[in-house]
Amino acid sequence: MSLLIDGKAYAAEVEGELTKRVEVIREKSGKAPVLATIIVGDNPASVTYVRMKGNACARIGMASLKVEMGKNTTTDELLAKINELNNNPEVCGILLQHPVPEQIDERACFDAISLEKDVDGVNSAGFGLMSMGFPAYVSATPLAILSLLLHYGIEIEGREVVVIGRSAILGKPVAALMLNQNATVTIAHSRTTNLPQVVRRADIVIAAVGKPSFVKADWIKKGAVLIDAGYNKGNKGDIDMENCAAKSSAYTPVPGGVGPVTIAMLMKQTVSAAEKLFGIQ
Prior knowledge:
By secondary structure, this protein is of the alpha/beta class. The protein has two domains: about 80 residues, Rossmann fold (3-Layer(aba) Sandwich); about 120 residues, NAD(P)-binding Rossmann-like Domain (Rossmann fold, 3-Layer(aba) Sandwich), CATH 3.40.50.720. Helix content is about 40%, strand content about 15%. It has a six-stranded parallel sheet with strand order 1-9-8-7-5-6. It has a three-stranded parallel sheet with strand order 3-2-4, with helices on both faces. Helix 3 packs parallel to helix 4 and helix 6 crosses helix 10. The protein is globular. The N and C termini lie far apart (about 45 Å).
């Protein structure tokens, strides 16, 4: 029988540990860690995600600062706001909700976030450090995927991992994390030739392509581990899990798999940033 990788249960466990760490921060510094979340425009999905992150802050005793900016915000205006938050000693972590309106240079804004406060792991310099095996905050969803695999005791070293998707905040960083765990990694994408054949080699499939039920059952090798990092309308992931799960040795559901742990990892990195900012060991 396939193992259900329960992200919701693991996220609750992580939050329990973080609550204790936040209590120590409050006792020693007299302050609550603050996560600043910037949302530009009124994208409904982004509004929902920001609310979920604010709720997670409240659950573990952190404070959240929601910064709302209009849909016509310019790159320079957003950069100025990020710089203001970088220099605010009360703010421990900064998250710029993705995506931003098309007139904004998102990469320039991601890279403007101070490495010490880049708790969502979007800065290019942080990615470089992480990929070379140096300490850095890691993109939250890739870190969630790695954390789930390790928590459930799923072997990574020596196994063949296929990542479907090459985004700068998911596909590429999760591939680097797997490589750092001594996996053999293939990054597949929309222009990969014979994609089903490539996926059939995988011991671990990580789907991050943003297309509902994209990965089919006949692509999956029997006994593969299936990690679905997609979330589409109708609570659909990127893997046709209804037909794929039975072929797997373990799989993440959608919802309740990678998503809750992504938020937990964002909280965890914010708590770590607060501990460093306030000098708490």
